[in-house]
Amino acid sequence: MKRLLAALSVLAVVAIAAWTYDINYRTKNALREVDRLRAEIAMQHETRQVLRVEWAYLNRPERLKRLVQMHDDRLHLVPIGPDRFGDVASVPFPPPPEMDPVAAALAAATAAGAFIPPPVTTGVSAAAAAAERLDGGMAFFPVMLAAGAAAESEPLAAPAMKQASMDATAAPAERRDGGAGARDAEAGAPAPAVGMAAEPAVAALAETPAPDGPVAPVPPRRPGALP
Amino acid sequence: MTDFAAPAHRRQTGAPARTGRATARPRDDWRLMLVVAVFVLCYGAVAARMGTMALLDPEEPRLASFGGAEPVRGEIVDRNGALIAANLPAWSLYAHPAELKDPLATSQELAGIFPDMTAAEIARLLTSKNDFVWVRRPITPRQKAEVQDLGRPGLFFGARDMRIYPAGRAAAHIVGGVRAQSEGVRHAELVGSGGIERFFDDRLRDPARAGQPLALSIDLGAQQAMREVLSAEIARLNARGATGIVMNVRTGELITLVSLPDFDPNLRPLASDGRGAANPRFNRAVQGVYELGSVFKVLTAAMALELGIATPDTMIETGTPVAIGRNTIRDMHRMPDTLSLTDIVVRSSNTGTTRLALKIGGERMRGFLGRLGMFDPLPVEISEAARAKPLRPPRWADISTATISFGHGLSVSPMHFAAALATLANGGQKVTPTLIRGGNAPGERVFSERTSREMMAILREVVLRGTGRRTNIEGYEVGGKTGTADKPRQDGRGYEKDKVIATFAAVFPTSAPAYVMVISLDEPEDRSGPRPIREASRTAVPATAEAIRRIAPLLGLRPRGGRVTAELTAIPAAMAGN
Question: Does ipTM come in above 0.90?
Fold first, then answer.
């Protein structure tokens, strides 16, 4: 009886030790996972912040006005006035774009599990896409910002240090709009027909002069700066 | 198990029997049991804790914190929540020159990445004797990746937050700017250096409140509309600058605060870019103190009504000049022999106003103007406002009373006047201008409700048949008063002949005042006709008319009885066609 008790106790100790060992490692793993998730959350927060600011920047009244003027032939928008009265909030969002039947069929097939290789002609070279990815696919706002500034102001004759530094971001910025186009085109790539999603990109392309084409993976270099 | 009996046993045997075996054994047992009990307790506690941890819901052992540890400066939004100032994560590039293997090649490569810096410039930095040099700040993620791809040793990145103004020029003078203080490798502290950024610096830097944005009373849409209108007027009239203020009559909330020329707050001009009004940073609405001219007649008339000196229909002599000491006050144009108080404001008679002012007297006039806040810096939440003190005569003589009654001799900012007019329109209760959403509660009573009502009717008359006719926009019952003031000469001797400040101060709708709008143009000149026209009625008034047409509907004011030809209710045709 005593021996049985002793044996059972030893077994219990072994079982509990194993259980503790297991829990210990699971806890450590869980903590590591929590750290990873927390870092990811921080990064997502950062991304969200950048996108929020970019959204606000792209929706600044100045730019919307310019876009309205640019597309006046299609939109025919006039400012609200005493004789043209309305509440802006009552304007509904445009209906979702109608899907191309081919694209719809493709999407349905993909959903059903069929593998459909992406079309070859995406309009974006692989190199350009890779260049876009350099910043983790994160659209960076100051670049856009400087683009607007550069497009509006003449070249600075004797730039002060501060202005010069901001201006520098302007050069890649002019590609940035093109970059946005590339991303949008990419998003629309699986479907051969580019739908509504690509339209803002077209606007963005037209908005700032892109000296080296819509998508340029190579950063503009100062002539003579490098052999 | 005899230990429980031990104490009784000891009591029976008495104290001395310590050495005997019979007494020693129970004592040892007792000790043993104590040790066992302690161990059982300890393990029991551990087991109990483990048991509760295993059974209870799991919870995170560490405090959650998002978005990095550095405190982030609070955001600024407009009254509808649109971002005006925000932060962005960015990087700065720095170098430890001692660790660089090949500074010259590195600088060549960096120059390729930063097109605005020459290789020689960077080489000078990288070959310096310092342990540490900033190469470039701030840099974009793409540039950061490019620098990383170089794989050069000795180059490092410091994370920092960048202050960004997504609204751009629209809110330039309001937000002001920030500068980096105590810049370190890990982070830089941003400190407000102007505008609301400086006024609310402590609030914006407070980490506990970094999550709540500071909501301004400004409406970005209206602000932009005002900017557009004023820019167009500046171009048309070749003016040096302009300011446009829209203020809520009840709360003192500033809906627009525009000062032109303006600047991009993301590229804020330096203090050295010009002195005074020549610097784009100069905020004309708040910092610019001007003699605003005839708009002051509104206040003089209101004082006369309030004191019972006159009613709107009281006839006052206007046919002859008024002599005060060595000075004589005349009217610009020929006036009838007598005019009613209403007509004095409508036709803007200097002599009539002077006669009213002399009846009011300097003492009482000072009292009114003081209560309207005309002698103190504005309490508005822009750091520059506290330094802009109105200019009043050093010695208040009768001639001061006379000239101030029609707006000369006392220099105030357009915002001062807007606040005074709002007070008059708000049933006479003092309105304090503010840039914070929610506004201020009305203050002390300066004028009676009756005076307020009568003055609104008089201002309406100015627009119906006086100098403000062009702002008579159907449905908005605009009332207002023009002011064309000669600018004082720079050398302080008298006034310029052909440079004016043209102002129009409007209230709408006059039957139930909701907003006050003050538009002031600096040196406007309409050269489209045979002779240049500078009068406010042809410069500031059309500007105000256009501004009201654009802004009033944005603020949700429905034109009363006006003809609405197009109503925005459903999907616009252009959109539906898509």
Answer: no
